[in-house]
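We modelled the chain as a single entity of 238 amino acids. Its sequence is:
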Amino acid sequence: MGNSSMKQHIETAQKTGVLKVSQGKLSEFPPVFRQLEGNLRTLDLSENKFLLLPEEISRFTQLKHLNLQKNKLAKIPDCIGALTKLETFNASQNNLSILPRTLSNLIHLKQVYLSSNHLKEFPLMFCGLKHLDLLDLSKNEIESIPSDISGLHVTELNLNQNQITFISAQIAECPRLKTLRLEENCLQLSAISPKILRDSKIANLSVDGNLFEVKQLSDIDGYEIYMDRFTAVRKKMF
């Protein structure tokens, strides 16, 4: 991106609070970014060449939306925790294998997209964030869902295309979880606890592409209770 083009982007962002510099060759923040520290609300850095997110990101404390999709990020710095007004965070299609615990500071998060990375463990730092509606962890390398997940407040959790073999029954205690996507994992039928069907608020459980036939869910105690929730949600939609 040329200097004149970048200057125009900066001038526009100063008026709108929105800066989109995607599909470029950025690997660090240009110095002119500093002019926007006080008023930037939306920053789109998707489809660039960032290997590391610069520490300067912590200066943009007014940010509500941060898009880092399709870079080459192997790490998110701890200082991301300074962006306490952030509502949407997209770091899909990077090279992330770990996440900083400081993400738990982002108490206003509503949507988090981390699809197509290399996460091996479920990121429990998102538990306790009471405004978080959607957590997309599809296409990672997660192998299990631990018992501490009961503190997750999302309404939708996407874990499609991971390597999950174990699901803690405590997922049934997630207070708002209604949609759970587990397609194309490594689940046996025995991994689906009756408690998930019987006692949770889950009304949409997607399990196609695992090591059992979907129709076998009906053999699990609590299936009829789950279907009552499923049917009730469908009726509201039409």
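As a brief sanity check on the tokenised model: The mean pLDDT is 95. The two ends are 48 Å apart (CA to CA).
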